[in-house]
Hints:
695 residues; 5 domains
Amino acid sequence: MTMVNEQAFAYREEAYAILESNGHNILVIAPAGAGKTRVGYEALKKTDGGAYVAPTRALCLEKFFELKDEFPQNGIVLGNKDYTLTGAEFKGATCRVVTHYKLNQLLQNLGRRFSQVCRTVVLDEVQGLNNEMDIAITKLKILCPDVRIVSLCHTLHEDDEPKFAAWLNALIVKGTERPVPLTHRMVEFQADLTEDGEELSHVLVKENGNVLSAEDIAGMPNNFQMVGWVVKQIRESGDNEPIQIFTPYTEIARQLAELLASEINEYDGDLQAVADSLTAEASEFTQSLQQILPRGVAMHHGKMTQQEREVVQQLVNDGKINILVSCYTLTQGVNLPTKHLIFERIYDHDKETGEKRLIKPEVYHNAAGRAGRPNKQEVGVVWTLVANEIERTEAEEVLLKYKASRLESRIYDEYFLTSQVPQLILLGWNTPAKMAEFIRATFYGQTLQETQPLTDQFERIVSYLIDRQVCGVLGGNRIYLTNKGVQIARLGLHPEEFEIVDELSKTQNLDYAEWVRRLAAVTGEHVVRHGQPSEEDIEQLVTLGLTVYSTSGSTWNAKEMADYVSRIFETCRSYFQLNQMTDYAERWNELVYQQFTYGNLELCHKLAPFLKRDQIKRLIRNLGNALMADVLDDPAKRTLVRCLWIMKNGHAEDELAREMTQVANILGADADQLHSIYAEEKERTQTKITDGKEE
């Protein structure tokens, strides 16, 4: 058993005392691995449940499983882009795990009634404050002041701590010590020439500022060779503990993982069996993952399927993976313990400008914090690779000196705000004074010296909405919504989005390509931040629809637009209900929605009558091209079982058995085999929760 600094958990006693003694909100700030999540779970237990809000689908899924273990006798439901959560399911559950987007939706629909069914809200990873989070928290504070908010984060800029706590009306509970000590090593590769004019590099390794080693190597290594040099140093020192490498780019992760695996001679038969159990061609990374796993190497990032990420995460927690290459999922709370953390580079690209930029200090420290986890390692070692003096200076003067950059809300994004203003009017912020009150109540408003620019922006938006006949003004003061505006507010759409849906629906348009192209034009202008989508992007979206996720060679823009168009299509169903367009909705569902969602996946068309839409979408995300086969192999059947039933919200066993039998008949499979796989996966999931849970 490794030694753990128990003092690192002392802050939790202060948090528990606050939970017991009063109804104060709490802002918990503690390093990665120090057990912040436990404070959130205890807060939920004090009120027999509540809502747990996480920023990503991967983290939502992890917390969903953990909460099923914390509340074994009660209903736990999940709501995000992959899992539909109705208002009735939300109100009938004990614990709800949702994203900020879903929380905002629920607050919009329930208003003040939210507090009647949910008395505690836990906000995880709040250091990643964005526009959706700012708006949702502001609504929550004003509409439901009696709901306790427990916020969890690993680091904040020291100037932001009191401001953020004041905004949340929260007491700060802070843990400063790590359960496992962390060592920082800076590795600088200085390019030079020999007397004969040959290229060489001086490699200088500093540990916590002190020179640890220095040597010369031939040539000027690229990033892959620099990582390889560090891995070699670790292994040649006799250290066989897990190594994790962070890179911002998924394709770099693939190439680096394949290169490192190619240099390993050891072969693990058990890991080969795991690789063989993966669904073939589920994602564009499946083949690479199957090749590298038997060598004890893996990768983990958001472009892999849910099943692939789950498998890798379990292997990492079981200590079966020697080298893991990961991307931003590492910085978003997903539990991937390691001893060594190597930064392949310290720069990424700004999505809005496309320019190279230094990664944010909070990203750096969150990733670095994964090194050295309690009960796993006695020390964590962070290796930061730099190629010249300029990079070293930026690393030392920014990344190592500051724990976080200043919080920035970004609610000033005009496209986002324009979609929010009708919702605010519907909730009662329907005069200039009330609108100004809401602006001042946001984090962005409270931290501004002068809120007039934001107030001016709201006034521009209201004028725009009046011009688009979304709202009007009575008595020179009160803003009211037109019938069009009420629908826009209820649907949560931007006026441009609504007008496309309204025009195409009212003209009974069933042209699939036109629907997708028109909506793609809006997302290209306002949602895809790094440049307009190319014609190739749009053609991929029209041709592949939602299957663009798992098709090799698909562009990132096409995948972003697929997510967006899918959300609008789901909203169309509510539009049809509001406008009593039942007959058109049935034809639209067959000719537009199903074409986008299922494409040429005949198996999905057969399953659709028996499954919910979100179940079908999860199959497409996780099985991909495997759904084109006439018969699913055993790995695909196991993935299907996990997608359809392991995470299903609030199912009854008899309903599940009936659905499983129907699906087996369609697949031409043995129903008993699916039932057996279900029992195995359910037990495996429970074991994973118990073994991997944070202290």
